[in-house]
């Protein structure tokens, strides 16, 4: 029996021809269907009108600072790894209008509120992205801030509540991937409505919620054969063994917490350009900046919330200047927050092992190598602890 | 010890989370050449009645077309008709607030954050150490302490700024100087004009008073270097780090831990702070660019 087993209730089998019915059924139910499609030389997460939009026969080759689309098996739609974007683009839009106001003699009048949250179906997101959504759920959960209405992002909450998650388990991990060591893949374990595993003729379907079951019962599904089930499990087992990278998370948050002054940060800072690509492709990065734009003629001011990167100077700017003025500090902040701060703040690592920050870093900086360097440097850690004890005494 | 969970007043906002409510500027009092105390009144009466805050908390003040800034509340916590904010005219928002002036309107969201731990003050000595505009969030504490003065032994206020002209709340500093219930000491970095008082950094004032480390609680708010120097001096005087509280300044956008700007180590200064016990941040407090 394969080491990886599909979870959930009774599985179905959806022949490849059923994908079109899936997309049209979702559209009929009022969902905006979002899925992978080839755009601008990458596999981007975009609105789909039919299954023909899926990246059939296309595969991606990824590595440190490198991403290329190449020809793949003409039968398969989901043989890529992950593109630079994902569902975060829709739950936490890069630019979200918060409101616009028109000046009145005394104050200002509300012109428009935020857009109403869309009803989205995420088709074909990876287990690492399902896990990333769960991380962001914790960030934007109202309970984290005491449950006050004025401290909760209702757009995120409503978009998430209505969104349907159809995950596709990963059978083709890339060289930047390490979801197996983060426990987030290659098989989706929770947080999905439906999880598919792609075979040459179709998909093994696992339903993770009543909503998912209701949907797929209306599709041309049948019971999978034992050979199909076994093949799916074998594919996933092979995928788990083919992870390009590995990250040892045990003890890492504590090691990073102690490593503020670790000399390794100086080494990475020499290579880091401070461009912020890693933060733009990271599926859990949530930082934003709110800003106003006023139209010259109408004087209507629109307030938007835009994605922000902690690699910029203005991110930490106060009247005394930016708090983190060196690239060393900004890069340290990102890595430390991702792998350590998230744990303290939200009870989960901020890294899901998707490998995007490695692929899209123009300097090919590798978060797994850095984590290993800091974590593995036991000598430095011991010296730092001793020094702290000395100060305390 | 989780202080963040302690009950705090519910913040107000408009129909949307990030939409400020209109407030009218009732008064704009010049404290010195570049500092104003702005009294604002929440226009909606229902919200005004409901609005509560505790010393050490801050509001996000909004000027349409310009932006929002986090400003700590500097008025008397028992005064509900208006809320005071002491601003230094150094940024686009603070300058715009001054331009709008008395009688005009701005927006407000808040209050946010965790204030000074007044509920955890024991019947000992209280030292307030403020530097420059850092005196603003300490002023509500002075009002509160004077109202509950019989609960404490000594109450001391140490304030330092660049020059005598940089002092704020001057009439009150003079009043408190006369008041036997509070020992007020003011120092300046550069003595100009007719200044005959102490000269030097505010921590030097600690040498002028007798500290009983076992029963002292200190509240500190000032620029980064002052906070650090004060923490260090208090540590030398054996005041326990659990009883030294520091209010920090960071870039803030949302006020409730979702925009990421104010992170300090794994803390969000906006919701876990801005007031921290030194013991909570001891690991990173002396480190650069955290």
What would your notes on this structure say?
The complex is a heterodimer of chains A (393) and B (290). By secondary structure, chain A is α+β, with helices and mostly antiparallel strands. Chain A has two domains: 12-241, no CATH class; 252-285 and 323-392, no CATH class. In chain A, 34% of the residues lie in helices and 21% in strands. Chain A has helices at 18-28, 88-91, 127-140, 154-162, 179-182, 210-217, 226-241, 252-258, 264-271, 277-281, 327-346, 356-359, 367-376, 378-392; strands at residues 12-15, 32-39, 42-47, 58-63, 66-71, 95-103, 108-112, 120-125, 164-168, 194-198, 202-207, 288-294, 301-307, 317-318, 321-322. A seven-stranded mixed beta sheet of chain A has the order 1-11-10-9-8-2-3, sandwiched between helices. Chain A has a four-stranded antiparallel beta sheet with strand order 7-6-13-12, with no helix packed on it. In chain A, strands 4-5 form a two-stranded antiparallel ribbon. With 290 residues, chain B is α/β, with parallel strands linked by helices. Chain B has helices at residues 45-50, 92-100, 139-147, 170-178, 224-236, 278-285; strands spanning 21-32, 35-42, 58-63, 67-72, 83-88, 105-112, 125-131, 155-161, 183-188, 216-221, 244-247, 263-264, 267-268, 275-277. Chain B is globular and about 50 Å long. Chains A and B meet through strand 6, strand 12, strand 13, strand 14 and helix 11 of A and strand 6 of B.
């Amino acid at each position: 029996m394969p080491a990886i087993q599909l979870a959930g209730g009774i599985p179905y089998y959806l022949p490849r021809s059923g994908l079109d019915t899936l997309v049209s059924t979702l559209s009929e139910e009022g969902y905006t269907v979002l899925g992978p499609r080839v755009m601008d030389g990458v596999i981007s997460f975009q609105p789909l009108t039919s299954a023909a939009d899926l990246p059939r026969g296309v595969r991606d080759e990824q590595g440190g600072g490198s991403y290329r689309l190449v020809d793949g098996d003409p039968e398969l739609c989901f043989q890529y790894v992950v593109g630079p974007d994902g569902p975060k683009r829709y739950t936490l839009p890069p630019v979200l209008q918060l409101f616009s106001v028109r000046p009145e003699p005394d104050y200002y009048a509300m012109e428009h509120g935020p857009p109403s949250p869309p009803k989205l179906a995420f088709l074909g997101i990876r287990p690492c992205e399902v896990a990333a959504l769960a991380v962001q759920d914790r960030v934007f959960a109202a309970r984290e801030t005491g449950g006050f209405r004025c401290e909760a992002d209702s757009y995120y909450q409503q978009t998430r509540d209505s969104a349907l998650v159809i995950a596709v388990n990963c059978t083709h991990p890339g060289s930047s991937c390490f979801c197996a060591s983060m426990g987030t893949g290659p098989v989706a374990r929770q947080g999905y409505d439906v999880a598919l595993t792609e075979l040459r003729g179709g998909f093994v379907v696992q339903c993770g919620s009543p909503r998912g079951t209701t949907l797929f019962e209306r599709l041309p599904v049948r019971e999978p054969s034992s050979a199909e089930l076994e093949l799916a499990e074998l594919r996933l087992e092979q995928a788990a063994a083919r992870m390009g990278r590995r990250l040892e998370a045990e003890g890492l948050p504590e090691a990073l917490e102690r490593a503020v002054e670790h000399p390794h940060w100086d080494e990475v800072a020499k290579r880091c350009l401070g461009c912020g690509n890693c933060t733009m492709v990271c599926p859990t990065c949530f930082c934003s900046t709110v800003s106003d734009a006023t139209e010259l003629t109408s004087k209507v001011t629109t307030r938007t919330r835009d994605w922000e990167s902690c690699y910029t100077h203005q991110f930490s700017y106060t009247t005394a200047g930016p708090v983190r003025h060196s690239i060393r500090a900004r890069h340290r902040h990102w890595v430390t927050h991702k792998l350590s701060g998230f744990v303290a703040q939200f009870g989960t690592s901020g890294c899901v092992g998707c490998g995007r920050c490695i692929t899209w870093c123009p300097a090919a900086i590798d978060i797994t190598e850095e984590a290993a360097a800091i974590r593995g440097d036991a000598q430095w850690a011991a010296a730092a602890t001793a020094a702290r004890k000395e100060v305390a005494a | 010890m989780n202080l963040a969970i302690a009950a705090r007043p519910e913040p107000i906002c408009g129909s949307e989370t990030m939409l400020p409510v209109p407030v009218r500027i009732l008064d704009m009092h010049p404290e010195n050449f570049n500092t104003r105390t702005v009294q604002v009144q929440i226009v909606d009466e229902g919200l005004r009645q409901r609005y509560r805050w505790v010393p050490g908390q801050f509001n996000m003040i909004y000027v349409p077309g310009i932006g929002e800034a986090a400003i700590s509340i500097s008025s008397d916590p028992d005064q509900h008709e208006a809320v005071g904010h002491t601003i230094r005219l150094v940024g686009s928002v603070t300058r715009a607030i001054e331009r709008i002036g008395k009688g005009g309107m701005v927006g407000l969201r808040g209050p946010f954050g965790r204030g000074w731990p007044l509920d955890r003050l024991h019947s000992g000595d209280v030292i307030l150490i403020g530097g420059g505009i850092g005196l603003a969030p300490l002023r509500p504490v002075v009002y509160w302490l004077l109202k509950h003065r019989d609960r404490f032994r000594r109450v001391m206020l140490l304030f330092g700024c660049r020059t005598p002209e940089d002092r704020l709340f001057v009439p009150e500093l003079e009043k408190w100087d006369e008041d036997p219930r509070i020992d007020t000491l003011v120092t300046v970095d550069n003595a100009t004009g007719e200044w005959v008082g102490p000269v030097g950094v505010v921590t030097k004032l600690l040498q002028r008073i007798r500290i009983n480390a076992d029963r002292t609680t200190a509240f500190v708010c000032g620029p980064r270097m002052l906070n650090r120097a004060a923490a260090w001096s208090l540590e030398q005087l054996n005041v326990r780090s659990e009883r030294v509280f520091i209010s920090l300044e960071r870039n803030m956008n949302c006020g409730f831990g979702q925009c990421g700007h104010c992170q300090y180590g794994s803390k969000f200064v906006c919701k876990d702070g801005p007031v921290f016990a030194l013991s909570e941040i001891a690991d990173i407090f002396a480190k650069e660019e955290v």
